[in-house]
Amino acid sequence: MSVNDTAHTDNFAWNRQVYHRLKLALSLGLRRQLFLAVCDDLHLRNQVAARLHSTLAYPVGQVLYQPANTQEISTPAYPRLVTLRLNLSDPNPIAQINQWLGNYPPPIVGATKDTPGRPLPIPVFQIVGVEQLTKQPVAIQRLFLHFLRLIEQYLSTPESGRFLESSLVLWVSRPWLSAIQQSAPQFWNYRTGVFAFAGEPTPTTHNSGYPERFSTTRSLDLGNLEPSILEEAVAQAELKASAGELKFGDDFDFQTDTPIHRGRKPQDITPTKLELLKTGIQQPESLARPSTDTTSSLMSLSHVNQELTELVLATIDTKAIQNDEDGSQPQQILLEIEALHSQEASGEILGAAYHRLGNCYRLRIEQGQSTLENLMVAILAYQESLTYDETSPLLPDILNDLGTLYWMLYRTPPNSEEGQTYIEQGIEFYKLALKVISPQTHTETYARVQNNLGTAYGDLARFANPSDNWQQAVVAYNEALRYRTAEMEPLKYAACQNNLGTAYWHLGQYNQPVVHLKKAIASYNLALTYYSAEEEPLKYGMIQNNIGTAYWNLAQYEQPIENLQLAIDVYREALKYRTPANVPSACAATQNNLGTAYWHLANLSQSSKEIQQKYLQLCIDAYEEALALAHSLSGITLSFDALATHNNLGLAYHQIATDSYFITDKTTRSQYLEAALENHLQALNGLSKQPEAYQTTFAYVVKTIRAFHDELGIQGQNLALSKVPSQLLGEILPKL
Question: What is the mean pLDDT of residues 166-182?
Answer without folding.
Answer: 89
